[in-house]
Amino acid sequence: MSERRVLDVSELPDSAFGHDGLIWWGTVGFMVIEGSMFVIAIIVYFYLRLKVETWPPSLPDPNPVYGTANLVLVLASIVPAAISKAAAEQFDLPKTRRWLIVLTLMGVVSIILRYYEYTALNCRWDDNAYGSIVWLLISMHTIHVATDVVDSMVLAVMAYVHPMTRKRFVDLSENSLYWYFIVAWWVPIYAVIYWAPRWL
Question: For 12-40, what is the mean pLDDT?
Fold first, then answer.
């Protein structure tokens, strides 16, 4: 009777940064699924554009002031996200806390600006197909921003009140990765909402 081979993995960490960890793969999976939804919504936008002669139909173009301000803000928020991510991967708790709070506050300001963006769209969601798809695009992104801001708030509280384990630092690192995804998607959505009506 042959002996069964056994591999002792008890010394391996229960979590890891980057693609060596399951949390990274889960986060990337979410980004692929949610990115696909954004792609579909943008395709619908251009499909609807092909069905009418003027765009937006019988409505003024959206005012890009607040959207542009929000774009600049979220692009700038990459800096605290990157610093927080790097600090988490070095297990530097004070630095991670500090920059996570900065990132969270920038996210809150982004949501406030988003409120004013809705008023600058110059349409209601039920005006016509154009209004519906524009509101859908901006609302999809707003939900992502709000969700990650809440997630960042929870992680910030946990970083202050709970003992910090390796797994918690991995969570903090992956939070920044997801924020990059949110920022990256605002660039094409911003262009579609504010500049496609002027270019098409």
Answer: 81
